Amino acid sequence: MIKHFTIPVFVPELACPFQCVFCDQRKISGTLKAPSLTEVNDLITKYLETLPEENAQIEIGFFGGNFTGIPPTEQRSFLAVAQKYVDSGQVSSIRLSTRPDYISDEVLKLLKEFSVKTIELGAQSMDDGVLIKSGRGHTVQDIVDASTLIHKYGFNLGLQMMIGLPGDSLAKSLYSAKQIVELNPIDVRIYPTLVIKGTELASLFREKKYVPLSLNEAVLWTKEIYRIFETASINIIRVGLHPSEELTNSKSLIDGPYHPSFRELVLSSLWKDRFEERFEFKRNKSIIIYVAPTELNYAIGYNSSNKSFLEQKFEAVKIKIDQKLFNYSFYADCY
Q: What are the two backbone dihedrals, phi and then psi, of residue 279, each rounded to the nearest 5 degrees?
């Protein structure tokens, strides 16, 4: 089985013309300034030393800011560093993230000169009211237009969405997820909104004008969105913000549904739903549940939460793997 790896290069706030209420990219990425070309080269080399050479598909990703908003000469310089690793065969392609309103024919023609395969857009929401309250500075139509243009030029489209933004609701987030499906992305990321020190959202929080989702709410919302994307066969490459020293040590996180194992919480909850839907609970019976190897931890549940739940319903519970199973297929023996 081929494993996919992304070497992340953070280029924070080089050209973003707006300060979204939730954003302090320097805190989120743990990076205080743009890396030099030498630093980018060293970073890629260091990552490659840790990644397998066989059965691996490796890409270089430029994240953390508005990549296509920086001067074209600088874009070329960063991309040229990555390109030499593609040319050498060590890396398969390049990925980058940017804003929907910084996509144009000229931008995409430049990217076509290099081995850029995937362009991620920070859509965040498909509700104009939420975008305005979040200070995004672009509209839903900008997202649609940019996505259409990216497809036209033959790039893969990635989309990022956030839940719990100012003015958001579960209904709006579910609508956003369904609209994102219509844009036909190859992959998506789902981020719960966090209150980070130094952001406008932190001020709104202190003034009691913004209330973040609880962790339980964020898990429930994300679980429903996860189902929408999975049903549409869209790869969900990240759920929840990547843990960083700043966040895990609570130096910058003020409030919000942060958890270092957020995806595991969501997938554990999905598995609990499957068990509840499938089983007729019998306290005097024991049960052995067989799942795919990749799903064992989620089926057992975060901190064995699902196993503990089932042990309240059955005399005894075992959850094992069956190598022939894949995805969410499972079966059980009850005795």
A: -95, 145
CA 44, CA 271: separation in Å to the nearest integer? 37
In whole angstroms, give the CA distance from residue 33 to residue 46.
19
Q: What band does 250 get if pLDDT is binned at 50, 70 and 90? A: low
Structure tokens at 269: 């909850």
Check if the beta carbon of residue 183 is closer than 8 Å to that of residue 234.
no
**Are β-strands 187-192 and 235-239 bridged in parallel, bridged antiparallel, or unpaired?**
parallel
**pTM of this prediction exceeds 0.85:** yes
Domain identity same for 159 and 214: yes
Q: 260 and 213 in contact (C-beta within 8 Å)?
A: no
Question: Does any domain span residue 174?
Answer: yes
| Strand order across the beta sheet in which 187-192 lies | 3-10, 56-63, 93-98, 116-124, 156-163, 187-192, 235-239
Residue 323's closest CA among 294, 289, 288, 287? 294
Domain containing residue 320: 279-334
- Among 168, 137, 147, residue whose Cα is nearest residue 17: 137
- What is the distance between the alpha carbons of residues 116 and 59, in angstroms, rounded to a whole number? 9
Q: What is the per-residue pLDDT across 11-28, written as a single tens digit (0 to 9) for each?
A: 875 556 667 888 765 444
Which residues 6+ apart lie within 8 Å of 33 measured at CB? Answer: 12
pLDDT in tens, 295-323: 999 999 999 999 999 999 999 999 999 99
Note whether 213 and 287 are same-domain residues. Answer: no
In angstroms, the CA 160 to CA 23 distance is 14
- CA proximity to 68, closest of 78, 58, 60: 78
How many residues does the structure list for the chain?
335
207 and 304 inside one domain: no
User: Phi and psi (nearest 5°) for 98?
Assistant: -160, -175
| Alpha carbon distance 132, 13 (integer Å) | 20
Helices (H), the chain: 25-29, 37-50, 72-87, 105-111, 128-133, 140-152, 170-182, 200-206, 215-231, 245-248, 262-278, 296-300, 305-311
pLDDT digits (tens, 9 = 90+) for 145-203: 999 999 999 999 999 999 999 999 999 999 999 999 999 999 999 999 999 888 999 99
